[in-house]
Amino acid sequence: MPSPFPGMDPYLEDSARWADFHLTLIVTLRRQLSRLVSPHFHVDIQEHVYLTEPGELERRHIAPDAFVTLGRPAPMGQAGGQAAITTPVVEKALPETESRHRYLEIRDARTQEVIAIIEVLSPANKAHGTQRREAFLHKREAVMSSSAHWIEIDLLRGGERPADVRRPSDYYALLKRAGADADLEVWYFDLRDALPVIAVPLRPPFEDVPLVLTSVLEETYADGFYADKLGYAGPVPPPRLRPADAAWVEARAREWLAARG
After folding, report:
1. Is 180 a member of any domain?
2. 112 lies in a domain?
3. Is residue 231 scored above 80 in pLDDT?
4. Of 46, 124, 159, 250, which sees the most CB atoms within 10 A?
5. For the purposes of burial, counting CB atoms within 10 Å of the CB of 138, is it exposed (0-12), middle (13-18) or buried (19 or more)?
């Protein structure tokens, strides 16, 4: 069953859901872009690894990558003739010290030159004063001054935008073509809008290809089985919606639930 919303689904902005959605969206973008640019160009998924400090990013699950020994428990005896479990050492898991963020590169299939970089922003990219945001802005500036095109897609209402995205809107997509003097091309859209069709530039003699973001989102929604995961019975994740938008979301969700039965 499709999403209740014609554009971005605000329930997908939940911080507990975002990592799964972001990865599924990146995979869908790669698949759809590959159909558009092959065989002369190919699309790769790349990964940033960021070192983080405690408390800098949103709360995340603890991964047992590093441990501190607490001690050895008492031996475990044998019961009912079954083999006794070998006594383990009990360790305390430490918080993660790195986080990962995936993005896309379009490369020339013959020369392997990077033609374009596509970033889908995450909450940490928009969190004021964090190392990860500073690293993102540094990369953004470097690519915008390079021979590669830069595309960023922001499907999060919350957080801090770059200063050059001036018009108020819920979401946006931005293109900076290769070359230091190129202007920014920005597609602004709101919660109730369908997502735009944006340009993805390549290199001469190849023309821009149209990336239909609505199609990307619909395919992502289906691939991630979000109709089953989201439910639409609870409140919309932060930030708080404008009253008119909140009433609109509630009505769409109620209609969706009634149609699903």
Report:
1. yes
2. yes
3. yes
4. 124
5. exposed
